[in-house]
Design a protein that fits this description.
Layout lengths: L6 E6 L3 H11 L4 E7 L3 H11 L3 E3 L2 H7 L4 E4 L6 H10 L4 E4 L6 H14 L3 E4 L6 H11 L6 E9 L19 H17 L5 E8 L5 E9 L4 E7 L7 E6 L2 E6 L6 E6 L4 E6 L7 H13 L10 H20 L4 E3 L4
Helix pairs in contact: 4-5, 5-9, 7-9
Protein name: Oxidoreductase, NAD-binding domain protein
GO molecular function, one term: oxidoreductase activity
Keywords: Oxidoreductase
Length: about 325
Amino acid sequence: MEKKETFRFGVMGAGNISNKFCDAAEKTEEVCVTAVAARSEERAREFAEKYEIHTYYGNYEEMLQKEKLDGVYIGVVTGMHVQLTELCIRYGIPVLCEKALTGSSEEAERIFKLAEEKKIFVMEGVWSLFLPANRKAREWLREGRIGKLAVSNVEIGFTAPKNKENRYFNKEAGGGAALDLLIYALALTMYFCGEDWKEEQIQVIYNEDQVDVTEHVILRYEEHLSFMTATYLANVDERLELTGSEGKIMIRHPHYADQIVLYDGQGKLIEQYSDQVTENGFVYEIKEMVDCVRNGKTESSIVPHRMTLECAKIFDRIVRVSSTEQSVGIKVGGF
């Protein structure tokens, strides 16, 4: 059997999330990181030394110009995701961009149109959807283990450090709970329930700088309701519950899930699943990208373009509420 050539990644960004990506790449067969670029050449050099990466750059475009890459992982601040994704596409290089890819449906449509025109793979890095625990939960749901789905509920949140310059509250850098946390809740809901809801309701709380700090979203599907809450204001009981006519599936910390539990209609424990294998969940999305690119695909079936676009449409409404101060948006005091 012919051995496949090593898939060569370039990494944009030298922060914490890029560290996690490179650790995953080291654990993935037939994959290597051959170059890294950051806004600071010194940071890029230190990062390259840490992971024994051959070349480093203090300019993102220079890396694309000089390196022969099979794909790029974008791990910079959210506010730069769109610009760098489009740059990679124009250079003909497949992209795995950390979530949220964009907070605007107009930007999402533009990116995916360009990717389709140039036949370049693009995927938003919602790694949670690839985790074995979440995949097992979807398997249970599709097998009818809880009967007919009636309600889904996701809560994700924590008390974020109150600093206007950090990634949570810096609006220019793409801060806010929607692009950081609600993206998980929305993507997981679509992963389990699909993208064909009939109606949506959104409640938002903003701080004095008009950064969104809490969201509550309700999606009305044909025969069930889905509730999502994301917040920077409290350490919530992070969980995802799928409740049906004959039982319930519960997932603790669904955005990095490793255990799920199945109950019957009377609340009796029926089955548990524990992921004893995963060391770094980014491995799964890396494998997905490599497989898709090698098979000539422009999108993933697990994180399809439509999922990213539908999330962006929700983000449109959150931004619009903020700018027009409609009644659905509720302001709270600052720090």
